[in-house]
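Re: weekly structure request thread

Next one in the queue (256 aa):
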Amino acid sequence: MLNLRIIVSYVTLLLSISGCSNFPERIKKIAVDTTVFINARGTGTGVIIAQKGNKYYVLTSRHVVGIPPGPIDDKYTLKTFDGIEYLIEYKKVKPDQNLDLAIVEFNANGRTYKTATLSKALKKDSSVYISGWRDCSTPKYEFNKGKVSEIVSYISALPKGSKLEEYNKKDIKEGYKVKYTNITIRGMSGAPVFNDTGNVVAIHGKPGHYKGTLYNFEACNELNDDFANNWGIPIEDFFKSSLASGIKDIKLNIAD
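Done, posted below.
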């Protein structure tokens, strides 16, 4: 059963969907409906990408669910936008072999949820919106706007003299090729990155170069630009992955 603080958090989220004048309301509504909170060894975020019968499939970061629960750990769970908690059956978690991505599934027990549309339409300087859950003492939903600042395909493609010191070979092997100015914090790994048409174009998972700001997760204050400039995995790379190949029998919503 959800405690009172979690219930208040979800009620506040639902009331805020149409109350944010800085963002296109339609995109925020899509984001809220399809974004889930994941409670594993730590906390993370995911996005509902498909349905098959009562089962729903969530795309997230592999490192969010990469370590199986121990014998005395709580079961891994996720919560949908309506605050309902579902069990993640760990043996059915599907991690990708190379990319820092994974798919988890849950049984909705007859409830229905919307699924996000995926798209390869990712361009430098285009506007993007990130949707995720901050790992505060009471998890807090975060939705903010930014723009794509870098798209790289290999290490030598990085602009000479650019200050991308936080980027390395391991990151690009795991798929981190797109950088954006959106603000993120711990708990938002696996968060969907939406474009202006409300389609998911990347999955967030790697923080950028913080400026030394220490964040108080107990107070859960508003984030500032010290937490901007972060990295995600393009959906185009997900389409090419072994993870996508392994779910060919599951219909995805893919934009033209």
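The first helix runs from residue 4 to 16. The domain at 118-239 is CATH 2.40.10.10 (Thrombin, subunit H).
Next request, please.
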